[in-house]
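Deliverable D4.2, example record:
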Amino acid sequence: MTGDARIRVGVLFGGPSAEHAVSCSSALAVVRALPRDRYAPVVVGVTREGDFRLVPDDVVEGLMTPPDGVRAIDDHLEVVGPLVELRPGRPGVAVLADGDPVAHLDVVFPLLHGPFGEDGVLQGLLEFLGVPYVGGGIAASAVGMDKVAMKRAFLAEDVPVTPHVWADEVRWRGMADPLALVDGLEYPLFVKPANMGSSIGITRVVDPSDLVAAVDRALEYDPVVIVEQGVTGREIECGVLGGFEPEASCVGEVTVSGGWFDYDQKYLGTLDPMIVPAVLPAHVEARTRELSVAAFRAVGGWGLARVDFLYDEAADRLYVNELNTMPGFTAHSMYPKVWQASGVSYQDLLDRLIALAFERHARKRGMS
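Output generated by the structure prediction step:
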């Protein structure tokens, strides 16, 4: 925009993964919160087929007032607008429609969740385009998305995880006795796709007769499945923010019904399931924050992450369940809530994340 000194933030959302709808909600929340005196949002949606579309300004502006009493998943952006492509803009990224430049991006906020957006694929594209972007790089994103690789990284750094096993589809189909996969694990079990988020494809298994169906369901979303031993305890979460000296937020707790925090509770309800801050003993909160930073460093994180824990009160033990390198930013999302409770407003959070994107980019350029 001629004469506009604001930073042009490309808010990238949607994508082909099963978490498309969650991404559309996260993106709208971020667009609403970006301070317009410093940032000019350029909203680019990715269709389920992988096409890029520039969402018109009037469509975005028409959604700036949050509705009352709707489910988080229903308050979202749509992937609409002209077909565009992204090209290196030196610096930044040029957005072209029919070969003509229609917008320019100084920095990208990649709010695609799940495969193709949070697993290093999109980060690789942004690296190729030479544009600063929010969040972890290719390796951190890939490890943070793959639950098997993630747990290996945690174990290498003495970050406690629950007992688990994994198998790829070929191994699973070739097993004469499928129950042998979980020998040594105690029920209940949680069967998950190795590469997926938002609780999609996860099944809680309390009876061995249900294991095969649960694994088959998980394999619908990823060719690798992980089976984790359940822990009777509380689900707590912590936010991490920063670069080489990351900080941990206060700790939040998720109120759970039915034994675990599934997709419906996360996104399809109208009640807020989060307790922020969580009521915990001081030593548990301190240990949670310490382990959150350790987990972040174990995967080589940058910018942000949400670290999810299981807290076994009876044994007074914490287990890191997983780390999300691009956590949800919807109205019901924990990451902005724990930072708000830690004294960092949503707008300040976006300021810091964007500044960290520029810092990482400048460091990499200085080393090339």
